[in-house]
Amino acid sequence: MAPANTPHAETAQAKTAQAKTQFGYRRHPDQDRPGSSPAAHPVVIVGAGPVGLSLAIDLAQRGQRVVLLDDADRIGEGSRAICFSKRSLEYWDRLGVGDRMVEKGVVWSVGRIFHGESQLYQFNLLPEDGHKRPAFINLQQYYAEAYLVDRINELPEIDLRWRNKVTALEQRNESALLTIETPEGAYRLNARYVVACDGARSSLRQMVGAEFAGQIFEDQFLIADVKMTAEFPTERWFWFDPPFHAGRSALLHRQPDDVWRIDLQLNRYADPVLEKKPENVRPRIARMLGHDKFEFEWISLYKFQCRRMDRFIHGRVIFAGDSAHQVSPFGARGANSGLEDAENLSWKLDRVLRGKSPASLLESYHLERSMAADENIRESTRSTDFMAPNSHQEARLRKAVLSLAKETEFGKRMVNGGRLSVPCSYDTPLSSLDADTWRGGPPPGGSMLDAPAATSAGEPIYLTDAFRKGGTDFTLLSFSNGAPIDAPDGIKGIRIGGDGEFADPSGLIAKRYGAVPGAAYLLRPDGYVAARFRHPTRSAIAAALARAEGLY
User: Which cofactors does this gene product need (predicted)?
Assistant: First the structure.
């Protein structure tokens, strides 16, 4: 699969094992069925990138059988997405791969912004303690995909088929019929639902005739992954108008294996063929580093887009990740947003397939994730306009802001070198029902907050792990300073303190959730707050649960 937002992408001198994980094509019994009676499957996912792989694992852990198709036969080349957020790591914890990602990844939370040779300011994305996962890790996408494939190989519910390319789609009342091309010819599959995770150039998006509206930026950026030994700290460094790349911007990130990601803004009229040649890239990087003792791992040139589909659901076909929306790479909003698509969709699709919720529940996936896409596109566009001004007026504004930032705090806050990914807060129907006064805690539509806890035996555990260990159902988080709660069936419980299963040794759970007597939170299977209560009753919880399940 091609890297998202990289129409000119190609590998340069791949000298590591990044692209050597290759999977052989295998014939499947589905291919031996007559064309008039194709095999039927509940879910077919198209695209084995991070989003499709994660969604398949999530559905399989809920007991769903999944067919996962990809037209390639290997892990993608080049590092591509490298920056994964705390929220993504917590999701990968639930999928059983979080530890591997963090152990291999480079952990960071500090960033620095420079103008010319001078530092304007620095920031820390995770200034508070008491979270299991860091703010971000840097990890090449090929590692993330390899770990996800390893996890899939442990799950018999997933049938991962390489070199299976979808070439046609026919929508039916109760299913979607796919035509799939393989090295041994074509065959067909019926799926109750198809999830398109096939990237920025999604063929399925074209097959449903969907619009893809937004802004295409003409500025070009050069990516160079270089292998070298360097003394730079593990931080995100961003320059405006650096002395080594006058008039443009630059970005430096550390990756595992002594590989460094360098992004350099180029003239929009630069010739992509010439700019990608290693002999032309080397002098640029040498000027930046002050030496030429490095080797190229990957070189790419890209333009980017801030666009999305009008609707993420087209009949039996659901779109996720770059197939549904695209943003610039600055701010790490692409892959992380796609992973949030997967976790939002999985539990809803599972309930619909089991008949526990009506198909209309899937509409909430479109509403919530299109809201998130709009937020990401808005932030990404603002970052791009600041980093690569398109007009004389925008250039003057940036110059003024950078000048103010040298002397004022409010000027620093106006500098935009790529506002980094944070979980979206959904404007849910339950928000208007949150009538109680709260001094703290995540509101309905907000993501759950992590904090240290302890089991009744005194063993340390994090709240996100307690949530994960309870399974895949709705969860009621409550506190022992309130009366016991008679929760409806189908809701697991996490009770903190006193008579509860878990203790709050640091007091951070109570603080982060505003835990006055009686406080309780109904958490969705994806860790988002469905409702919160100061005075929870069985009927109030049941009503909130029914709304979250799409029952009314």
Answer: FAD
